[in-house]
Design goal:
It is a single chain. By secondary structure, this protein is an alpha+beta fold. The chain has a single domain, classed as Glutaredoxin. The protein is built from two helices and two strands, in the order αββα. A two-stranded antiparallel ribbon has the order 1-2. It is globular and about 40 Å long.
Length: 89
């Protein structure tokens, strides 16, 4: 899920050959429900999306969730692949 506009995600997908669905929450309606948005009104990054990783299976069940407060904290590809395998998604 991204706070970027859907058109931005589409262009990113096309430019990078991404085949899976990228979700946009440009209006920030779902990010708070996933605890993936800065909600502290005193924060200089209020309403920014947090760095978060979700794995949702074909039935729409959330199988994996990892949220970072620091957007520079990235999961390594092997961590993501391990989460995919373990999720059964």
């Amino acid at each position: 899920m991204s706070a970027d506009h859907a058109a931005t995600l589409k262009a990113f997908s096309e430019a990078n050959g991404v085949k899976h669905l990228l979700l946009s929450d440009f209006r920030r309606q779902m990010l708070p429900a996933y605890d993936a948005m800065v909600t502290n009104e005193q924060s200089p990054i209020f309403r920014y999306a947090k760095r978060a990783y979700f794995i949702v299976d074909r039935q729409g069940v959330l199988r994996y969730k990892r949220i970072h407060d620091n957007a520079l904290d990235l999961l390594k590809p092997d961590e993501i692949l391990k989460a995919l395998r373990e999720s059964g998604a």
